[in-house]
């Protein structure tokens, strides 16, 4: 090949490379006819499989660069004068398409919302962006969904402003449920304030609901509400109950909290001995049936239903059933209550208040108690595994107890670290001479910024009574002395010891002698505080 021929070939390659997008388009058409694979696409003047980095690299190096380059458009008139101006090309990119595509659409949608452009103008801009992505063969569910809304507009099913709104919600699916819930809430709130009747509320709810349906916008929540509307139309739900059913269906995140609150109202009366266990179970059953009749369900509601069934079959006594329902409705409290119950025995063992056998028997009873209530968790199962290994005769009681203590300590650490991530908790607005034990003190760290007891230092007068409140989910003590001395608690002159304090427990001590009193938690010895009595 002569030097001149080589120059001609190189120039041809460069020109074909720059115009590669047209060739790629033609190649795709050819590919669809011949059934060829993706590797046979033409990238510039060669097969994509031969191009360094394959088709993706070619698109990055040639196609996207070509689209993004400003180009000069020249219009010549009959007098041979020319008018030149630059245009910027839309740059479609497959990288983060579902973020970049909606952002580009928003430029037009936002102008329309501000009345800066008409709906038709907004649709022209939106169409230009959508067409650019389609031409670049970039497809996602969002891009396809916007295309479907355009089709509905072209068919005359949507007018221009309706099409813009449908496209807006389609391009930002994460906003569909919040906007839908907000529309329903506007109606439901008026009903709750007695500004409209239940029938008027249901009419408003249907109007808001079908506003989304008519835009061909849907979601799991919208479909669930559609089911409730079908029950209303069939006469199976009506009035205030229907409004409540819609409310809970549209806000599924509130279902379990509302159930727990309704059950707590009954359970609290039982705990205060205001009603019997049987009366409590009747109340619990009424609450459960109320949610079921509204066709509102969740995993927790189903679990409560199972506990009620065990009570009705005689497998759980009334008081046990109330406790089982309580823990089932508040699963976040299962592990803290289990830990508290187990640590009460390990604490007494450390103080030589009970023997190893007694501690082991107590922990076994705690485990059996939770299992007997059909309450379980990963933590409870792990402890059960250790007890089963002991029952097999392969390990000693001492070893098993050590393993259980390690399991409990690890569960405490994980739980408390999640509480402590927020940094130093805010000081509660407490009465005078009151000390709070805040959430998150069960793992080392609170001592760094001195918030294991809040306040950690307190000044009082002779005759004053100091109150400590355990606001943590884990147990603690308030014990005279510190972990570095041999004499602690009641053995210290004028000393004090709260003993085992479960969550929400209080301890009071009246100081009759002036002096400096340091104290700590025997379960978590990094926790220290002091009282100065004048």
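Q: What amino acid sequence fits the structure above?
A:
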């Amino acid at each position: 090949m002569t030097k001149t021929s080589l120059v001609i070939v190189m120039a041809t390659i460069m020109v074909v490379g720059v115009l590669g997008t047209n060739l790629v388009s033609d190649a795709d058409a050819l590919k669809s006819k011949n059934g060829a694979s993706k590797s046979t696409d033409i990238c510039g003047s060669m097969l994509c499989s031969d191009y360094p980095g394959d088709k993706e690299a070619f698109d990055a190096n040639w196609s996207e660069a070509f689209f993004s380059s400003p180009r000069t458009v020249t219009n010549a008139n009959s007098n041979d004068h020319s008018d030149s101006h630059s245009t910027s090309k839309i740059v479609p990119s497959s990288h983060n398409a579902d973020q970049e595509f909606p952002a580009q659409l928003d430029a037009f949608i936002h102008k329309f919302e501000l009345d800066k452009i008409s709906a038709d103008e907004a649709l022209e801009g939106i169409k230009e962006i959508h067409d650019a992505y389609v031409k670049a063969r970039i497809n996602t569910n969002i891009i396809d969904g916007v295309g479907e809304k355009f089709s509905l507009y072209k068919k005359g099913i949507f007018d221009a402003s309706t099409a813009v709104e449908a496209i807006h919600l389609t391009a930002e699916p994460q906003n569909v449920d919040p906007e839908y819930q907000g529309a329903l809430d506007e109606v439901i709130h008026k009903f709750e304030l007695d500004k409209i009747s239940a029938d008027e509320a249901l009419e408003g709810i249907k109007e808001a609901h079908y506003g989304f349906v008519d835009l061909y916008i849907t979601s799991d929540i919208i479909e669930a509400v559609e089911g409730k509307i079908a029950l209303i139309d069939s006469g199976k739900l009506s009035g205030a109950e229907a409004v409540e059913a819609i409310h809970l269906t549209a806000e599924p995140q509130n279902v379990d909290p509302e159930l727990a609150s309704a059950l707590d109202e009954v359970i609290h009366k039982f705990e205060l001995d205001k009603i019997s266990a049987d009366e409590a179970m009747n109340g619990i059953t009424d609450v459960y049936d109320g949610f079921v009749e509204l066709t509102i369900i969740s995993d927790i509601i189903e679990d409560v239903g199972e506990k009620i069934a065990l009570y009705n079959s005689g497998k759980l006594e009334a008081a046990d059933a109330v406790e089982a329902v309580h823990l089932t409705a508040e699963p976040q409290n299962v592990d803290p209550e289990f830990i508290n119950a187990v640590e009460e025995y390990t604490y007494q063992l450390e103080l030589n208040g009970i023997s190893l056998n007694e501690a082991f028997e107590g922990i076994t009873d705690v485990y059996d108690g939770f299992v007997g209530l059909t309450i379980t968790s990963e933590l409870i199962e792990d402890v059960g595994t250790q007890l089963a290994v002991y029952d097999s005769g392969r390990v000693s009681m001492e070893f098993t107890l050590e393993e259980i203590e390690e399991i409990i300590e690890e569960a405490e650490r994980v739980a408390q670290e999640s509480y402590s991530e927020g940094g130093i908790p805010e000081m509660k607005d407490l009465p005078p001479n009151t000390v709070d034990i805040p959430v998150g003190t069960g793992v080392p760290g609170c001592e760094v910024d001195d918030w294991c007891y809040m306040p950690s230092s307190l000044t009082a007068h002779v005759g004053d009574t100091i109150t400590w409140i355990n606001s943590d989910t884990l147990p603690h003590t308030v014990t005279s002395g510190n972990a570095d001395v041999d004499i602690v608690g009641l053995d210290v002159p004028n000393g004090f010891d709260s003993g085992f304090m479960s969550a929400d427990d209080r301890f009071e001590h009246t100081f009759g002698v002036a002096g400096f009193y340091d104290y700590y938690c025997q379960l978590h010895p990094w926790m220290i505080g002091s009282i100065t009595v004048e």
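Q: And what stands out in the fold?
A: The two ends are 106 Å apart (CA to CA).
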